[in-house]
Amino acid sequence: MKHMNSEVKEERTSNKKRIDLFLVPIVLIAAFLNLFKIWTDEYANAYYTAAVKSMLQSFHNFFYASFDPGGYVTIDKPPVVFWIQTISAKIFGFHGWSVILPQALAGIGSVLLLYVLVKRTFGVWAGRFAALAMALTPIVPAVSRTNNIDSMLVFTLLVATWMLFRAVRTAKFGWVLAAFAMIGVAFNMKMLQAYMVLPAFYVFYVVATKITWKKKIAFLTTATALMLAVSVSWAVVVDSTSADKRPYMGSSQTNSVLELAFGYNGINRLTGNTSVTGSSHKQPAQAQQQTASSETKQTSNSNAESSQSSNQSKSSSSQKMQAPDGGNQNGMFNTGNPGPFRLFQKGLSDQISWLLPFVIFSIVGLFAGVKFKGPYTAKQKESLFWLAWLLPVAVFFSIAGFFHQYYLIMLAPPIAAFAGAGAVALWSMYKQHNGWKSWLLPSGILTTAALQVYIMSPYVSSIGVAPIAGVGALGVILALVLAIRKERKNSVTNYLGVAAMVVLLAMPAYWAMTPIIYGGNSMLPAAGPDSSSGMGGPPSTATNSKQSGFNGMQPPGSSGSNSSSNNQMQPPSGSSNNGQMQPPSGSSNSGQMPGGSSKNNGQMQMPSSSSSKLSSSKRKSGGMNAEVNTKLLNYLTKNNTGEKYLFATTDSTSAAPYIIKTGKPVMAMGGFSGSDPILTVSKLKSMIKKGEVKYFYLSGMGKGGQSDVITWIKENSKEIPSSKWQSTSSSSQQGPSGNGTLYEITLK
After folding, report:
1. H-helix or E-strand containing 274?
2. pTM, two decimal places
3. What are 428-450's pLDDT values in tens digits?
4. pLDDT (tens digit, 9 = 90+) per residue, 183-236?
5. Rounded to 5 degrees, what are φ and ψ at 314?
6. Within a 10 A sphere around the Cβ of 360, how many other Cβ atoms?
7. Is 510 helix (H, G, I), strand (E, B) or coil?
8. What is the DSSP string of 82-94?
9. What residue ranges in 499-656 does DSSP mark as E strands?
C-alpha cells in the first residue's frame, strides 16, 4: 500500500511539471491532420448529417436519433456520438465542419491520451513516439476528418483505459466501475465493436492487481454488470416504448435496438451475412465485389462503383473499365480476402500496417524472459494489456466477412503503443549489447522498410519510384550500418537510430496527409493517393486524383465534357449487355440520374478532369448523390398542400440532401438501404388519407419488404411529367443510382 501511495504522489508531482515541449509539435501535427480544411466538407456523411439536422428540431428526434425531422426512422447506430454532434451544431451552427469537429477533436485527444498512458510506465520518449505514431497512422486522421463514429469510439475506449490503469495504481474499486461504465457508453456509440477491448481489460486487471482471486472475480463481475446495464440502458427504453410513439429502428428487421446491436451491427459483421428480410446475401469475395448492390447499402455501393472507375489505367479514351487492380479481387470494398495475412493485403495495409513488423519485434523484446507464473514488471503488465487489445482485434479483421477500411482505427492505439514502447526498449537492448536481443532493432527496421516498399508498390504511378526506392534503400542502409556499429557507442549511432525512426514514419506521414492533399470521402473514409474515392487500393494511372467526389466520376446522364461511349463500365462477368452499366432492376430509364439526359443508353461516362471538379470551394462528399435538384425541390414545395412529408422515396440516399437543405421531413420508406420492413400498403394508405404524404420519388424496384408498396404506388398514382421537375443541369442531379420517376397519389 505504501508503494501505491508513493506512486500516486509521484504522479501528482509529475503533473505539476512543465508541459513537454516535444509534445507540442506532435499535437500540432495531429491538429493539422485532423482539422485542416474540414470546413470544405459541406455535407460530410450526408446520412448522419441529415440526422443531426433532424435532431436539432425536437427532443423527440434528438433522443431517438431520428434520421428525418418527421420521426419516421432512426439511423442505424445508437445516439451518443450524434448527441455530441448535435450539441456541436447547436453551439456553432449547422455546418459540415460543426458535425465533424467532435471527431477531429477526439482524434487529437487520442494522441494526447496515448502519450499519457505510455509515458508513465515506459518513459517520456516512449510516450512521445507512441503519440507521434498514433497521429501519423493514416486511417486515424482519415476517419477523424468525418462525422463517422469510430474516432470518438477509440477516444472513449482510451479514456476507459486511463481509468483502468488508475484503478490498478490506486487500488480503488470506483475507478474499475468507471472504466467498465465507459465501455458501456462506447457501446452506445457503435454497439458490439466497443466490446473488442474487453479481453485486454479482463486480462490486465487479473494480472496487475494484488488482491485475492475472490475479490478479483467479485469486482470484475460487478463492473461487468454495470457495463451491461449502461450498454442496454438506451436500448431498453427504446424497445419498451410503443412502436407508434417512436421512429422505426433503422436497419433492424424487427424494429428492435437489441436486434440491431447483436445482428446487423454485431454477429453479421463477422459472418458477412448482411441479410435483408430473411434472405441471406453471404457470398464469396468475388461475388460480393460484383453484386455489392444486393448485399450492402446503396450509398456504399455508389462508392464501390466509383472505386472501380478510379482504380483503372486508361491509356486511351476507348479503354473500358475493369475490376480493381486489373481484375484481381480484393474483397468487398477493398478489405482483402480473409486469412492470416489479410492485414498485409492491399486496401488494408496502407491504412494501418506500416509499423506492424516493428511492432512484432517490439513485442518479442518486451516479453523476452517473461515467465508464465511471474512476477511481472509494470512494463510487462501494460505490454500484456496492449497485446490483449491488439491480437483479438487483428484476428477479427483477419476473418470478418463485412467491414469497412476505417474500422481499422481500432488497431491504431495498440500498434502506436508498441511502436513507442518498443522503440525505447529495442534501443536499450541494442545499446547494451544484450545478446540476440540487440539484433531486434536493426531487424525490425529492415523488415518494416521492406513492408513499406511492398505497401507503396501498387501506387508507383501516383507517387513515383523515388519515395519507394528511398524508403527501401535507406531502410537497408540504416539497418546494416546499425548492425555493423553494434559494438560502438557514440553520438553517430544515436543519430542513426533517430534517422531510422524518421524513415519509418515518413511515408505513413505522407499517407496521413492524403485526405488533405487529394481530398477525402466522408462516406467511406480511407487514406492514400486515391483517398477521395474512399475505397483504397491502387489508383488510376491517368485520372487526376484531386477530382472531387468519387474520383470525379459523374453519374449517368451527366453533361460532362467527355461523353464518349467508349468509356464504359464493364459489368460483372456473365452479363450480356455489351459492356454497358445497366440501371437497377426494374428501372426503365437507362440508368440516368434525376434531371439528367437520357442520351447515353445507360452507359457509365468517364469525365474529363476539368469537368469533374466542383465549381464551389465546398466539397459535397456525402455521396455520389449528395446534391439537391433545385427544380424538383421548387416543384414539391410549391405543390405541398400541408402534407407532413415533402416527399417519400425508397431509401436515405436521395432523402438526406433534401433534409439537410430544407430541414423538412422526407420519408425514406425502407430506411437507409431501402430494405427495412417499415411500411405496409395499409399503413401507407392511412398516411395518404390523413394528408401526410402525396409525392413519391421512385428509382428502380424496392428492396426487401418494399416491393408490394412500390407496386401499389405505381398502380395507384399519377406520374408527374419530367419536364415539370427534372433539370438538365448536371449540377442539379440528385437521387439514387438510376433515374427516377415522380408520382402523386391523392386518396379520398
Report:
1. none
2. 0.82
3. 999 887 789 999 999 999 999 99
4. 999 999 999 999 999 999 999 999 999 999 999 999 999 999 999 999 999 999
5. -110, 95
6. 17
7. helix
8. HHHHHHHHHHH-S
9. 648-649
